[in-house]
TrEMBL record:
<feature type="region of interest" description="Disordered">
    <location>
        <begin position="1"/>
        <end position="105"/>
    </location>
</feature>
<feature type="compositionally biased region" description="Basic and acidic residues">
    <location>
        <begin position="93"/>
        <end position="105"/>
    </location>
</feature>
<protein>
    <recommendedName>
        <fullName>Casein kinase substrate phosphoprotein PP28 domain-containing protein</fullName>
    </recommendedName>
</protein>
<feature type="domain" description="Casein kinase substrate phosphoprotein PP28">
    <location>
        <begin position="72"/>
        <end position="146"/>
    </location>
</feature>
<feature type="compositionally biased region" description="Basic residues">
    <location>
        <begin position="1"/>
        <end position="13"/>
    </location>
</feature>
<feature type="compositionally biased region" description="Acidic residues">
    <location>
        <begin position="44"/>
        <end position="56"/>
    </location>
</feature>
<dbReference type="Pfam" id="PF10252">
    <property type="entry name" value="PP28"/>
</dbReference>
<feature type="compositionally biased region" description="Basic and acidic residues">
    <location>
        <begin position="21"/>
        <end position="43"/>
    </location>
</feature>
<dbReference type="InterPro" id="IPR039876">
    <property type="entry name" value="HAP28"/>
</dbReference>
<dbReference type="InterPro" id="IPR019380">
    <property type="entry name" value="Casein_kinase_sb_PP28"/>
</dbReference>
């Protein structure tokens, strides 16, 4: 056998066609063409559409698609509808992007509702932080109040000490003060008077 797997026809005798056979084949071909033209003229538009659909279907089903049933909505032939057939009251089908946007909005509203109710992690963290801030402010207010009271007490003490010292100077004569100083009794006397005034001011506060 030669290369390529083809058979060789060398050495065979030549064959010639019969003229009568050729004429007969040509007449049959002409009759067939005439009959085909007549059938085409008598066929309707619906038959042409069905034949084109059959051809497209057979063309699509050739190969793997002919073995597996495939339903693709994008390949489905959509027929044109008349204006009277269109239902205006029917709800319009939303696109994928519109559905995703609506779902995102709904999830955001659900989260905000839970956040306002204090059921989310962020809401709980915010409440804890607010409680800490409130406690710190209360402690700072207490410290300010204590400092204010302490300053008032200190001022009252200074005033009492000044008045006590003035009272001692007025009530005692110079000679008595000089004698008390010599006897070292003036300082304990001042201390007693100041302590008495401090106790009185504390009781008043």
């Amino acid at each position: 056998m030669p290369r390529g797997g083809r058979k060789s026809h060398r050495g065979r005798g030549k064959q010639f066609s019969n003229p009568e056979e050729i004429d007969r084949q040509m007449r049959a071909q002409r009759e067939k063409e005439e009959n085909g033209d007549a059938e085409k003229e008598s066929s309707s538009e619906s038959e042409e559409e069905s034949s084109s659909d059959d051809e497209s279907e057979s063309r699509r089903r050739s190969g793997v698609e002919g073995l597996i049933e495939i339903e693709n909505p994008n390949r489905a032939s959509q027929k044109d509808k008349k204006v009277t057939e269109v239902d205006v009251s029917a709800p319009r089908e939303l696109s994928r992007r519109e559905r995703e946007e609506i779902e995102k909005q709904k999830s955001k509203e659900r989260y905000m509702k839970l956040h306002l109710e204090g059921k989310t992690e962020q809401a709980r963290a915010d409440l804890a932080r607010l409680a800490i801030i409130k406690k710190q402010r209360e402690e700072a207010a207490k410290k300010r109040e204590q400092l204010r009271r302490g300053e008032m007490k200190y001022c009252i003490l200074e005033v009492e000490m000044f008045h006590s010292y003035s009272f001692i100077q007025k009530s005692l004569s110079t000679e008595n003060v000089h004698q008390l100083k010599q006897q070292e009794l003036i300082v304990p006397l001042l201390i007693l008077i100041v302590c008495d005034s401090v106790v009185t001011s504390l009781l008043l506060v």
